[in-house]
Amino acid sequence: MNDFPWLSVLIALPLVGAVLLSVIPREREALVKQFAIGVSLVVAVLAGVMAAGFDAGGDRFQYTEKYWWIKEFGVHWAVGVDGVALVLILLSVILVPLVMLASWTEADRSGGVDVPAKRSVKTYFALLLALEAAMIGVFAATDVFLFYVFFEAMLIPVYFIIGYYGGAQRSYAAVKFLLYSLFGGLLMLVAVIWLYPLSSKPVSEGGLGRGTFMFDELAKMNIDPTTAKWLFLGFFVAFAIKAPMVPVHTWLPDAAQQSPPGALVLIVGVLDKVGTYGMLRFCLELFPGASKWATPVVLAFAVLSIIYGAILAIGQVDLKRLIAYTSVSHFGFIVLGIFAMTSQGQSGATLYMVNHGFSTGALFLVIGFMIVRRRSARISDYGGVQKVAPILAGTFLIAGLSGLSLPGLSTFVSEFLVIVGTFSRYKWAGALAVTGVVLAAIYILWMYQRTMGGPKVPAVEGMKDLNAREKWAVAPIIAIIVAMGFFPQPVLHLINPSVKETLVRVDRQDPRPDITGNVAENGARP
């Protein structure tokens, strides 16, 4: 199976599909939707076949491809996946067709949730396909320069989705998103370019003797500690903005409030994971000494994100902004697990990336269905919905309980691993992070009480329950949330070998003692 260019095909198919959509007449909206979802389903099936052939006990990076792209600068078209990248690609290809199905609404022409009045349905679905290609590429890239290209390429479809298909303040939200992302991207570009002359240095000076951007080769360099700290900051700030972490998180609530909910599933459910994925993959393995140097500060900001995001979520009056702030809190947990530098913490953080994508995706889809019916995202415009739309309310409850990490649902396992892994090394950070669990119960249950419980407000009288299409869109996510809550082992089986290899590399390149005195238990050494 490794002889077939799986990853190149997975990246190319959505792009080809987006181009072919241009030849379909604009007025044939049903055909546009059928074709787009058909392409996304083919991509999902191919990714599933690829995942079935992945050997978790084999080589770390599999399905690798490497071709010269810009030979003069040492840039390759190089792709491959380990367990971490594979599960994030699967998350992407599962969510895209479900988002398209959820966006398949007859409200398109009357200011609906995903495609406002007089907006091109064809362009919207083409942008979703282009975004899917960029998401697969960014997780598959094993050349650091190629990773940067995909990292920036994701901005283009997202900018147009927010700016053209968003709410009343869509232009402001789109520009703010773009400026924040470009600022971080420019810092990372400087760091990426800096790697080339460093790798060109002789081996005796810590280089490789040749200029390259290949991740595996760069990870072997012995970079001067001061230089490594600057490079680490260039990458980390870009990833912290994308994640998003406090205090560079403010673009997310505005983008969430103005984005169409379908696209928002991908922005928060997948795109933001690029930030935490980058921290785990590039910051830790390319700059292990600098990562350990920055760990106390990063953990402090992670805890701050957990508590600050949760408190602000409690005070929100807009459903989409509320879920956006919960995501700031959840990403704090993910960063906490990554920089705890333990196998439990990093496995939990990676699993959290996947589980958060599904739980938040389900919440945004259900909120989108509510907005289609009520034409409002304000919490005060709802009340007593469970009396008129019990299936919608039940789905909302399960997705919400997953967001607060209820035992038996998927996020509980990942959050538990993060807290245990953090507490074993940094008791102060683990203890403070637990307050986020308590605050999560407040903002989720209070949101449900205000929207679904209580007396019916006049505006929800006659609100329709989920139809067959909407059930098909959200049911697979709910099934995954429940299944992974009871049986997360298949995903952990893919994740754990890559996490252990990351910790081994960090320890090998920066062999300072583990602060607990129990290195082997924490997985920092083989």
Write a compact overview of the structure shown.
It contains 22 helices and two strands. The chain is mainly alpha-helical and 526 residues long.
Layout of secondary structure:
Layout: H1 6-21, H2 29-52, E1 62-70, E2 75-81, H3 83-102, H4 121-140, H5 144-153, H6 155-165, H7 170-200, H8 215-218, H9 225-242, H10 251-258, H11 261-271, H12 273-286, H13 288-314, H14 319-339, H15 343-374, H16 385-388, H17 390-403, H18 410-423, H19 427-451, H20 468-486, H21 489-509, H22 519-522
Antiparallel strand pairs: 1-2
Structural notes for this entry:
One of its GO terms (molecular function) is NADH dehydrogenase (ubiquinone) activity. InterPro entries: NADH_Q_OxRdtase_chainM/4, NADH_UbQ_OxRdtase, ND/Mrp_TM. Its main location: membrane. This is NADH-quinone oxidoreductase subunit M. The protein is mainly alpha-helical and 526 residues long. The chain is built from 22 helices and 2 strands. The chain has one domain. A two-stranded antiparallel sheet has the order 1-2. A hairpin with a 4-residue loop joins strand 1 and strand 2. Helix 1 runs antiparallel to helix 4, helix 4 packs antiparallel against helix 6 and helix 14 runs antiparallel to helix 19. It is globular, with a radius of gyration of 22 Å. The C terminus is likely disordered.
